[in-house]
Amino acid sequence: MKCCLFPAIIFCALGVTKLVPLSFIPRYDLLLIICLLAQILLILYGFETLDELKVIMMFHLIGLGLEIYKVQMGSWSYSEPGFATLLGVPLYSGFMYASVASYICRAFKEFHLRIENWPNSILAIGICVLIYANFFTHHFLPDFRYLLIVLVLILFARTSVYFTVSQKELKMPLSLSFLLIAFFIYLAENIASFFGAWSYPDQLAAWRPVHIGKMTSWFLLIIISIIIVAQLKKIKAAAIFLSTKHSTFSPQKTKDQKIR
Length: 260
Hints:
By secondary structure, the chain is an alpha+beta fold. It folds into 2 domains: 1-110, no CATH class; 111-172 and 218-260, no CATH class. It has helices at 5-19, 27-44, 50-72, 93-110, 121-137, 145-155, 174-194, 214-244; strands at 85-86, 89-90, 114-116, 160-165, 168-173, 258-259. The strands form 2 sheets. Strands 5-4-3-6 form a 4-stranded antiparallel sheet. It has a two-stranded antiparallel sheet with strand order 1-2. Helix 1 (5-19) packs antiparallel against helix 2 (27-44) and helix 5 (121-137) packs antiparallel against helix 6. The longest helix is centred in the last third of the chain and has 31 residues, at 214-244. 33% of the residues are buried. Mean pLDDT is 86; it is low at 246-256.
C-alpha cells in the first residue's frame, strides 16, 4: 500500500542490515543514508510534496528531541556504534517518527480523508502540547497519560473520519482510528526492536515482546501526529480561502468543523 511505503522501506532496511552486516560502515550510519536517499527519491518522483516534506521533517525533529531525552533517562538505548549520532541517539531514529507523518499525509490523499466535527483548535493544540509534555514530565511528576486519554476521548467524542475504499465512503469515530493506528505501530515496534533498531531495558539480555502498556504511548503519540497534520491542513485551507475566496472546508462548516 502506498501509504506505508516509507515505513516499509525503513523496516526492510532494518531487516537487511541486521542479517547482512557491512564491516566498512556502522549499521546505524548506513540506515541514515538509506532513509535520506529514500526521502529524496520520494520527493523527486512526486510521491511526496515539498509541503508534506516540511511536515515530515517537523516530525523528525519532534521525534529526535523525544529520543534524546528518553535515552538520557534510560527509557531505551541504542546498543550499536555510529558516527551520525547526537547525545547517544543515531540520527536515523528521527525518520521512524517521520515515517508516521508520511503515512498520515499519504492517507489523506489515498483514502480521501475527511474529518468532521473537528474540535476547537485551541483545545486540540492544547491537548497536543499536554500530551507531548507528559512524555517528558512523567519521569519526575505523576504520569497523567490515562487522564489525557480520557480528555482525548471527551474532546473527540463527536469527531468522525470519512475514508473511501473501492469508491465507497465509510465512516469511523476518530478515536477508534487513533487506537487502530497505535496497535499497528505497536506491532511495528516489536519488529523494529527485534531487528535491533533500539532496545528497552528488559530486552538487553535477550529480545522479548514490547510490553503491551506501550500501546498507550503510541495512542497518545499518534494523536499528536494527526492533530499537527490536521491543523496544518486547516491553516493551508484558510490561506487558500483568503487568497481565492474558495476553501476545501464546507461553506457551512468553516469554523473548526471539517478537514480534508
